[in-house]
User: Fold RNA polymerase sigma-54 factor from Marinifilum breve.
Amino acid sequence: MLKQSLQQKLLQKLSPQQIQVIKLLELPTLQLEERIKKELEENPVLEEGEKVEEFQDSAQTEDTNDRDTDKEEFTLEDYMNDEDIPSYKLSAQNYSKDDKHEEIPFSGGTTFHELLISQLGLRILEPEKAALTEYLIGNIDEDGYLRRDIDSIVDDLAFSTGIETSFEELVELLRVIQDFDPAGVGARDLQECLLLQISRKGKHNPDVKLAHLILKKHFDEFTKKHYDKIQKRVGANDEDFKCAIDEILKLNPKPGSAFNNPMVKASPTIIPDFILEEEDGDLRLSLNARNVPELHVSRTYSEMIQDYAGNKKNQSKEQKDAVMFVKQKLDSAKWFIDAIKQRQNTLMISMNAIIEFQREYFMEGDERKLKPMILKDIADITGLDISTISRVSNSKYIQTHFGIFSLKYFFSEGLQTDTGEEVSTREIKKILQECVDNEDKKKPLTDDKLAAILKEKSYKIARRTVAKYREQLNIPVARLRKEL
Assistant:
């Protein structure tokens, strides 16, 4: 049985303008420039540059004559009489799934594997063995290691290509690859990689000879930095042993990384979104709008709409379509300009709140002056939503008188000291880093000792928390920080 009834629902919907503001708010300065350029290309109503206003009556009179001329040169008839070819005639939609689409690859130079194959061409090998060697090269990763098991490669060759080979033959061909540059390429593990490199230096040097012995006979102890055990077993004095360890530390654990691959993209350039300057003991914040043009709506199109709006009765269908097209572009331009202004306003409000919250830090640039701060703190100050503050801080940078920083850098959690004072976890990490930098490398500080040092400084932190902060700072455990 059908039944009609009334229901009330509370829905939250975003208008197209709000969605546009949200998307623009997430963009950093460099991407905002590209977005504005794209909008200028797509919307003829939108113009860049300062908007010229006419204030004098005489100037307005002269400008009226000029506008009459403009109207004669550019009217809605241009849209109606323009013999535009429909878009469907300019694009082919009759592609078949079986059609072959070839893409031209970008050539940026010689890759790491091409370098190895070029060295293979200098060796005199039978065609079958050369093909097998090239197959092995294809299994070497970007670090220069052959991490695949050779028995698995033998099976792959048999099943996929029908080539019968043996473990011994592939090992023999791998020795050929291991003779290529860079030294250490084609190794199956770290020990073999380091041995290949140390062998190239020649064993006539006593330090190199001792280093080769350590890597060959005492590699496990070396990785765990049990230097005392190794020194006793090899029977070397302190000076000779230290020189041998120095020779090992000069080796490259990833030989493939030494090859400069031109195909790898360079790090992106950071353009700050904010510029903070210190003047006479005060801080002055500004937006970096150096390459962001000032936008305004074209006066020609605005007057065109006004003229034709007063003469609706005598308009043909083509004229109405042209007026509708221009009106849509006009509204789109106004929305875009308003969205840009709202973005700039939101950025300034949020960044000013961050500066006021961390004013002591921004005045001195001392990392220990950073207060604990989360997104909710800035949201409460500005009255904005937490998601808005998150979008503001995402991929944004500020240029200060002591460096360029990501906005996310200023947000951190807090801990309380014995006196009840709340401090930033960044301050604790700074103390940890200083303790590790100043420790005795022969007897590095363990996590328990670091926790005890922090406790003496009134920071009550458990050992597991110290370990977490140490890992965040990319500091290895005490055993791996040990030096001679």
